[in-house]
Amino acid sequence: xxxxxxxxxxxxxxxxxxxxxxxxxxxxxxxxxxxxxxxxxxxxxxxxxxxxxxxxxxxxxxxxxxxxxxxxxxxxxxxxxxxxxxxxxxxxxxxxxxxxxxxxxxxxxxxxxxxxxxxxxxxxxxxxxxxxxxxxxxxxxxxxxxxxxxxxxxxxxxxxxxxxxxxxxxxxxxxxxxxxxxxxxxxxxxxxxxxxxxxxxxxxxxxxxxxxxxxxxxxxxxxxxxxxxxxxxxxxxxxxxxxxxxxxxxxxxxxxxxxxxxxxxxxxxxxxxxxxxxxxxxxxxxxxxxxxxxxxxxxxxxxxxxxxxxxxxxxxxxxxxxxxxxxxxxxxxx
Length: 334
Description:
Blueprint: H1 9-23, H2 28-31, H3 33-45, E1 55-58, H4 64-70, E2 76-81, E3 107-113, E4 125-131, H5 140-150, E5 151-162, H6 170-179, H7 189-198, E6 202-211, H8 212-223, H9 238-245, H10 248-256, E7 264-272, E8 296-298, E9 302-305, E10 313-317, E11 320-323
Parallel strand pairs: 1-2, 1-4, 2-3, 3-11, 4-5
Antiparallel strand pairs: 5-7, 6-7, 8-9, 9-10, 10-11
Helix pairs in contact: 1-3, 1-10, 3-4
């Protein structure tokens, strides 16, 4: 399967803008120009892979961005994130666990899960996606390896991440690391492509997006306490909507030829696993992250692994099983 170009860019971005103005005007996608631009890029770039079931998303936070990116294309079978309620030590700083926004309805099931030890058997999913997660302090190699492991032959994976371009803006880098010390620890897209190829993936593709001068200017606005967009508390404000809309021609120009962007502050990477996808691939059952068995005694407050040599117990929070082994936060450099 070839990796297709993004179809009908101008129309796609125009529809995305209208979707933000009509459905997402009370979310962070609308309220910060940086997120408005970023999620429009994401919505367009993830078109490069099919969204086929069974599907898995790692690091969903509150689910709003994913809903904007994927919901019109179908459901995602499992939305997962690291538990963020204090039950486990977590490597992420932005995680909200699996407490999603009430308007998010495109996930079929939720699971507390660690992307470095995904609690599913090998070859389980036709699609695996991950949006701006590995820079949250995860071990990138482990996470990419796990995504490839659970991807079925013929399946596609895709993720976005920061590039090292922001290191050329030291003041901005200081602000980012104050907010999240892991975000400044970046690797180039070639590092990811090399790892994917080592793991046997094919048809790998990458591009950078959000040119640095544009992206860094938006981030300065995001981190500046003095920046208050006009009438930001009035979602119907024509002035603010005009301000957001003024960014769209530059976004369209980039997306029309994404491979030409060489100084973007973000990257998009996707790849396919060799083989033919089994169209009858069933929705997988979660497995114990300690012993890899899939049989649990499921109660309202906990799941107990039924393997007699394991019997690990995992809590259930607000109806969501948290299948994550306790661990210490990472202090990795890349």
